[in-house]
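Key result, reporting period 2: structure in, sequence out.
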């Protein structure tokens, strides 16, 4: 049995393959589904959009949503199925990211195949965390165009201008603007600002404060970041950081012997 064999860790049933080490073709599940990237890089393609994943991020899918996992090389992906009532709020998919969820996914990876692992308890805790944690403030589609997608994946953390980013991919700024508007529904400048705000919001929710959020998002100053948040109607007070120390979810699992 190799690392590429999905039977490496047992599933609760035949179609619940919890751990994946390779890409898989389009398919769907009758239950809501979480796709969570532990290591590597890749994306999840839906019918009309594609979501890039980096380690520590996931995509929460509603039931019966066809999706395709694409890994850009070696990687580890967790894909637990959820209870029928635990679908993403207000839509077919939501990006998810939080230290508490990452802690739970790490526990899942380490303990899923161990005898005595309390799967029902774990699923209960995981589903509660999913319904409570924050998600990306802005749900941004990636362009399907390969060169434009490469720009999107670097734009938020890059200091380069649009002209410089476009030239690296042998495109004109006009081509990039057209592709972003056609395939994401947003002008490039708006898309990039919201991608940077997602980074800032994530840092604030991790408890890093403005001191961490400013360099993380590349806005340059606290004032610039505050203004960008205000223009999008995001109140700083709403970005509550997670509780310090071991999460309540993890403590409950430890107490239960999971």
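The corresponding designed sequence is given below.
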């Amino acid at each position: 049995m190799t690392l590429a064999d999905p039977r490496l860790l047992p599933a609760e049933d035949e179609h619940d393959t919890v751990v994946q080490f390779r890409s898989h073709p389009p398919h769907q599940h009758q239950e809501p589904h979480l796709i969570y990237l532990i290591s590597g890089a890749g994306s999840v393609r839906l019918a009309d959009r594609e979501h890039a994943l980096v380690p520590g991020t996931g995509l929460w899918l509603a039931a019966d949503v066809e999706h395709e996992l694409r890994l850009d090389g070696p990687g580890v992906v967790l894909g637990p199925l959820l209870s029928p009532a635990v679908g993403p709020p207000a839509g077919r998919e939501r990006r998810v990211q939080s230290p508490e969820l990452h802690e739970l996914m790490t526990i899942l990876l380490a303990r899923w195949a161990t005898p005595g692992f309390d799967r029902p308890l774990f699923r209960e805790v995981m589903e509660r965390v999913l319904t409570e944690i924050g998600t990306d403030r802005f749900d941004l589609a990636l362009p399907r165009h390969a060169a434009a997608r490469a720009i999107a994946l670097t734009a938020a953390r890059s200091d380069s201008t649009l002209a410089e980013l476009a030239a690296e991919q042998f495109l004109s700024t006009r081509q990039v603007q057209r592709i972003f508007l056609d395939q994401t529904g947003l002008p490039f400048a708006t898309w990039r600002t919201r991608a940077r705000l997602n980074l800032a919001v994530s840092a604030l929710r991790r408890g890093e404060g403005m001191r961490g959020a400013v360099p993380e998002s590349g806005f340059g100053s606290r004032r610039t970041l505050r203004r960008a948040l205000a223009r999008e109607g995001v109140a700083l007070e709403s970005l509550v950081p997670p509780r310090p120390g071991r999460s309540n979810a993890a403590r409950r699992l430890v107490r239960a012997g999971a």
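The radius of gyration is 19 Å. Strands lie at 19-20, 24-27, 33-39, 42-45, 50-53, 58-61, 67-71, 76-78, 93-96. This case is discussed further under Risks and Mitigation.
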